[in-house]
Amino acid sequence: MEPAMGMGLVALMGAAATVAGCSEDLESDIGSQSNPNSQVQLAAQVGYPHRIFNKAISGEPPSNAMYCAVGAGVAMVLIQSVNASPLLAIAIGAFVAALLNGVFSTTAYMGRNASQTRFNQYVYLDVLRNQLLSLMGHAYITTFCIVGLSYVMWHHDLIGHPFPFPVIAMIWGLAVGAIGSSTGDVHYGAEREFQDFKFGAGLNAADSGNITRFAEAGIRSSMDNAWFCSKFGGPVTGIAFGMTVFLDNWRSTAFSGWTAVVVGSAIVLALIIYNRQIETYARKKYGPYPEYAGDIEA
Amino acid sequence: MTDITIIGMLMEHWVSIIGIILGGICIAVGVHFVPVGGAPAAMAQATGIGTGTVQLAAGSGLTGLLAAGYMYMTLSAAGTPGISEVILICATGAVGAMIMITVTMLVGNWVYIYGVGVPPASAKVDHDPITGDSQAPYVAPGTVGQGMPTVCFVSGAIGGLLGGLGGSLVYCMLMWVNGDAAISSIFAIGVFLVNAVLPSYNIQGTIEGFHDPKFKRVPKAVLACFIASLLCGIIAVIIPGMSAFGGV
Amino acid sequence: MSEPAETANQVDAKGIVVGLVGIYIAGISGIPYLAFLAGIGAIFATKMGADAVRRVCSYGIGTGVPSIGMLALGMGIIAAMFGLAIGKMYKAVFIGPIVGLVLALVIGFVVGSLTNKVIKLNIPVMERCLTEIAGAGVLVLTGFSVMVAGSMDFTVIVEKVITTGYIAPIFILGALGILHPFNASLGPDETQDRTLVHAYSCGAIAMVIGGVCSIAVIDPIAGIISIVIGLAIWYATFMGFVRLVKRDAGAGYVGTGLLPPGAM
Asked: What is the residue range of C87's domain?
C-alpha cells in the first residue's frame, strides 16, 4: 500500500474514532451508566428518589463490546451471504446493535427501579420513553463508527489485520467503553451529578447519594445531562479515543520494526511530561484546600 | 491425517506453556500497577482512573494485542517468528497498551483539572515519590484524593506496558501452537480476562499504583495467576489449529 | 433478596441436562433444521449462570458484577474448544461437550478455591458459584457455536464460527446473558423469578443473533428457524419480565408523574 493511502486510512480511522468516543460518552451520561451509576443507585436508598435514567448493562466496556461485536457480526453476514455493499451492511449492523441497546436499556431501567420499590423509587414510563430513542441513537453512531473503522482495519485491501472482523470490533468496543468510563464519565459523575455543590472539589463522602435532582425549572431529566456533558465530557472522550486509535495505528503504519516501538515510547514519554506540566499548572492555579489542617507544607 | 494425542501436543509445546504462564504473571502484576479508583474516582472521591480494574486492563491490554497481531502477521511473512521476533512483537504490544493507557490518564486529568477544578493529588502518600510534591494539602476535604499525580501516571504506564507485554506473549505462544490468528486471538482474550480478574479481587476495587500499601499483596496474585495460567496454558496448547487436521 | 422459588440444585440440574440434550440433538442428528435446539439448551445454561451470579454477587465481591462473568467466559472459551478438539483428536466427536463441561467445572472450582484460599476473598459460596458459572459459560459457548455451525465437529466450528469471527458476538452476548439479569435488577427488592425470566430473555437475544450469523454459514432456512423461535421466546419472556416489574413495583409503576410525596 502506498504511504499516502495508509496515512489517509489512519486519519479516517482516527476521525471515526473521535465521533465514536464522543457519542459513547453521551450515551452513558444519558443512561447514567458505569461508575456514576453508583450514586444514582444510592440516591433513592438515602432518601432522594429521582427521575434520572438508571441503567447498568454489565459495565460500559462489555456493553459497548457487545454492540460493536453484534454490529460487525451482522454486517459480516450481509457481506458474506448477500454480497451487500460494506457501507449498507455496516449501517444495518449498527441498527441491529441499537435495537439491542434499546432492549437492554429498557430491562435495566425497569429492573433496577423495581428493585428499589421500598425506597419510594418509581418506574416512570415517560422517563423510559423520552430517553430511550436518544440512547439508541447515540449507540447507533458509536457502533457505526467503530464497526466502520474495524472494517477498514480488517479488509485485506486496506490495512489487512489478521484478526477476524467481529473480534477487532469487539476489542475496539471494549477499549472505547474503558476510555469513556475513565474520562468523560468523570465530568458527569463529579460535576453534573453534584452541580449544586461548590465547584473545585470532588464529592465529599458525607454527601454521597445527594445527587442534583432539580433542574433550572422543574425536575432534572437525563436529557439535560447530555446537554451539559456535550460541552466538555463528550468531546474530550472523543479526543481520547481518537488519539488512541490514531497514534497507535500511525506509528505502526508510518514506521516498522523497532522504529515503531521507539516512536511509541517517545509518545508515551511526551505524554508523561505534558501531564506533569498540567499537574503543576493546576497546583499553582488552585492552591491547597483552605480546610486542610495538617502540618505538611503545601 | 496424522494422529494427534494429548501427550504429543504437550511434549511438543511445553515452551509455549511456560510462555503463557509468564504472560499471565506479567498481566497479573501489570494490573496492580494501574491506578484505578473504581466508582469513587468517577466522583473525584478517590485517586486514580474512574473505572474498574478489569475493564481498564482489558481495554489497554487488548489494544496492545491488536498492534501485536498486526506485527506478527508482518513478521511471519518471512517464516515462523523466532525468539527475537517475539521480543519485537511483545514490545510492540506493550507500547500499544502504554499509548492507550497514557492517553486515557492524560484526558482523565484534563477532566479533573478543567472540568471538575481539582489538582491531582494522592491520599496514600504525603509526598509524591517521583516529584517530591506535597500531596495532603491538595486533597479535597471528605475525599481520598483525586486525579492522577505523576507517580500514578508513571505507575499506570508501567501497568500498561506489562499488560500489553503479557497479552502479546500469550498470543505469540498460541500462534506457535496453532498458527491460526482467529483461534489465538480469542484464546488470548480468554487468558487475558482470567489473569486480569483474579488480581482485581486481590486489589478489592481500588489501588493507586506501586506506592500504594496494597501493592504488597502482589505475591498472592502472582501465585493465583501462576496456577490459573498453568491450567489455561496446558489446555490451550493441546488445541491444535486447522492445519493439524488437514484443513485449510 | 427474597426466598428463592427454585433452589440452586434445581436450576443447575435443568441447565446442565437441557443444555447437553439440546447440544447433542443438534450436533449428532446432523439436520440443520434442528440446530436451534442447541440454542434452547444454551438459554437454560444462561439461566443457570445468571442464578449463580445472583447468589455470589449478593456478597460484595469488591469489583463490580461484570468481572466474575468475564472470568468465567475466559475460562469457558478455552475449555469449550478443548472439549471439541479432544473429540476430534480421538475421533469421538460426541465426547466433546461433556469433556468441555467437566473441564470447566474443574477449572471453575480451582479458580474459586484460589480466590478464597490464596487471595482470601472469603466468600463461602465462591467455589460453588464459580464452578457453576464456568460450567454455564462452556454450555452457552458450545451451544451457540453448535447452533451457528450446525455441527459438533471441531474443524467445522473453527472454520465457520471462529475464523469468520462470529465467536465474538456469541462470546460477549453469552457473557452479558449471564451478567445482565442480576446486574439489571440490582437492589434490595430484587426477586429470583424476575431475574431468571430476564435471563431467558437475554439468552433468547443471543439466540436470535446466533441465528442471524448462521444464515451465512449453514442453511438460511435453519438460520431463520432459529431467529423466529428466538424472537418468540424473547417476546414471551420480555412480556413476562414487564409483568413481574409491574408486580414488584406495585403502585410505583406509573406512566408519568412528579417525585413521590415527601420527596419534592
From this structure: 8-249
